[in-house]
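We both want to read discrete structure tokens more fluently, so let's practise on a single case. Would you supply a protein for us yourself, any chain you care to pick? Would you write everything just below, so we can both look at the same thing?
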Amino acid sequence: MPDSSKKPRVTSAKKMDAVSAVEWLRSRGTKAKRDGMARYAIPSDRAFGVSMADIQALAKRVGRSHVVAEQLWSTGWYEARMLAAYVEEPDQVTPAQMDRWCRDFDNWAICDTVCFALFDRTAHAWSKVESWSKRRSEFERRAAFALLWGLTVHDKNAGDERFKGGLELIETAASDERNFVKKAVNMALRAIGKRNSPLHAAAAAVALRLSESADPSSQWVGRDAFKELNSAAVLRRLASKPKKR
């Protein structure tokens, strides 16, 4: 008789549907991983406790599917939503879907993963940076700057003017004292400044202004970003990049 105690393995070439994928995730979860999530401020009440490596391996088995991604998201399980970010088809994502998923963000990990692995590859990314930067919910507003951060890496064709517009949003949001917002604002500022020399100069100027602000949150964002942007490592990397013609 087969050993039913063995956990399923991602070995077959046959693709999984959403129900099977969730069951696979459930079987891979451990209490130790759920307990460990608390150390990173990730709620575990709707989590199985599955490693990111296992989630990414499962994504290859499931393959790209808009239908499956929506089904996974609707379960509300943390790992299922992480998986949805990797199996969703970027060109099938609508602005309404982005808003709907964004409203569901309840921790930094799901917010950042969806923005970095999916949303920054959609045609609607830039419009959402601006609109979400005005949201009041902590993780919805964080999403604006996580998305902007992701675009600095993945949007190779965006002109500097787009990112300079992002710097204006950063300067406005830097006074938000909520931890998960100001950290994303800080990371977006640093990421823009590392994209090329002209944007480095623009980002460093914003960072300097913020560091001189009377507002404590703005000060922290500015000082931390200014320090890294003027580090030897960043300056050396920028100097090695080819100049734009």
Notes: Confidence is low (pLDDT under 50) at residues 1-13. The first helix runs from residue 18 to 28. The radius of gyration is 20 Å.
